[in-house]
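BUG: 3D viewer hangs when loading the predicted structure for this chain

Environment: internal workstation, default settings.
Expected: structure renders.
Actual: progress bar stalls at 90%.

Input used:
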Amino acid sequence: MRSFPMVSASSIGPSVRYVAKQAGCSGVEGVLRRARLPLEMAGVAQHDERYIPLRSLFLVLEAASDAANVRDFGVELVHERGIASAGSLFRDAERAPELGSALESACRGSRAYSNHWHFEVVGSGAARRIGLATSLGSSRGARQLTDLLLAALVSLMRRFTGSAWHPIRIETDAASDTSSSAALEHFAGCPLVYGQSTAGVVLDAGLCRAGTARAVEKAEVAEPLLAPPNDLTSVVRELIRLCLLDTDCSLLLVARTLGVSARTLQRELNRSGCTFRRLVVAERCARAAELLVETRSAIGDIALSSGYSSHNHLARAFKRLERVSPGQYRSRARYRSRAGD
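Structure tokens produced before the viewer hung:
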């Protein structure tokens, strides 16, 4: 079964906020529906520890581009929001003491941000190349994402070199000039070289020792990024978690999100020693456990929020997994919390 790469859910945040500004809530809902994401994802700041399929990010960028009526949407996001347009990817890099450290941080962050693409620093002479190692494909959403990442890299570099600085050149894997690549060339202020095997930004190696050109806004200490799910079972669990935010979860819905048939998905899960039903039960109970600890809601209400029709249905499933009833689980969690205080 082919790989289904996942990316941090925070990656859609800048697009959602931009569309909300341009087209309002109805535009945001349309974007999320086209990407087959729950409407609750409009508040993506609450879901930094979640992951979504990379293809969902492509669909978000395509739909957001249409909703905002902007063809070069990836570059426009960087114009609008600067480094923040790349979500949490550069949140550590922009606080580094010098450009070289910032680029190394961006490379490390990219590997935690996605399991399907990453930045890498190459070159040991007078020039450095910050490459974008990826197999994103050639869809419009993939092109928007590539342009966004390259423009955000340039924006990061300008935090250390000054706003008037421009790279030696930008290399792109696009075959020829497009409207979005023309916008990228204008933004970076340097030539674009087309038809390369991978995309990347080339700069003078001496600049890697440059300190910040202007004060960086004070930011909160970043939470450590979680590693994105790699195997099929963990990917399906992430999708089930997302589905449960908005609606009931079905094998057909998750299979469509992954772009395979329900039969293929079930067969691959069986090979992994698991079933779709078992994963759904595990995620429903995990959601119930969170609500039991974090809220004072009645257990019947928690059952409904977790996809069960009644208190009794939740209690049976919960006890099979946790060996205690929901009420006992809540009581023990409160006791541990008081003991910790």
